[in-house]
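Class, look over these structure tokens:
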Amino acid sequence: MVNSPPLTTTRTATTTLAIAPAQVVRGWGAIAQSGAIFQQWGARPVVVGGDRTLAAIESALFPTLKGVDLAFTTATYHPDCSETALTQLRETVNRHQGDLIIGVGGGKALDTAKLLAHQCQLPIITLPTSGATCAAWTALSNIYSEAGAFQYDVPLPQCPNALILDYDVILTAPPRTLVAGIGDAIAKWYEASVSSGTSPQTLIIAAVQQARILRDILLQKSEAALAQPGGPDWCEVVDGTVLLAGVIGGLGGAQCRTVAAHAVHNGLTHIPAAHDALHGEKVAYGILVQLRLEEQLQNNQLAQSSRQQLLQFYDRLGLPQSLEDLGLGDVPLAQFRQGAALACHPDSDLHHLPFAVTADQLLAAMVTTTV
């Protein structure tokens, strides 16, 4: 009998995964059917959102909270998800003796509510009001300056305690928000496949493949979804932008990273004229920039083919293909140069590309996305 050598194992540090909300409710009229969920998590909730969002969701949410005898108050965030706004909101929570945060709105509102809940050590329920981002799902908040410029992100120890996706509410949002959400969600594939496509780790492999599936769903169903708001394809696309995009970030975590598309977005937030463009619109444009970098610096023909495919897709949906489409045609070149420099900061996610990029190279890609 031959004795086999002992097996060796590679020990890795213990990690805590924040993969998903503890509970997800989705469907038509979901908020009205979720009174018991709100009651489960608190008796004195603080509802956090923007002025317009709070007004839009009042008829769906407030009767539900009153129906289960919750003593709620509302609080608006301003300006943006900033440190100043969070300070003011913490004071509101303390005055109200709040024991639950309910975040309603788009990405910045939900980021604000999630971080507020973390800082106050309270549970958080998210209610997205559009299909523009997956912020209702993720354990992450982005912090902006009072002028709306991206500053840094804050990883959170867990996803929201509950997420309630009410199609009736989402249907009231401008169609442009879902288009932007498609741009933000489809970026998952183009970024994750570059940063993590060769990973041997099971969950990251799963995240990358889910990103590919999400890309295919969006390429196949987005036009039909936008043509028939509220129809079956529309529901599937909303599930993709809000839920499946969140699954990808949850499974992949920090190791399944954003790359150049989001780095370009972050740089553009420092250009005042770009503030009218939605998050997903800037990210969608950033995908084209990333693919252009792969073409220019690696002579990557697959990247060129992918960019041409996306240009046609963007044209059909109305996503921005150039700086001019973002409303930045009259912005001085010096501002773009500054934005490119910020996107190339040493801590930027842009450096998850498998090759080095300078600010001048990034600027060249930014102005040639449609060639």
About this structure: The mean pLDDT is 95.
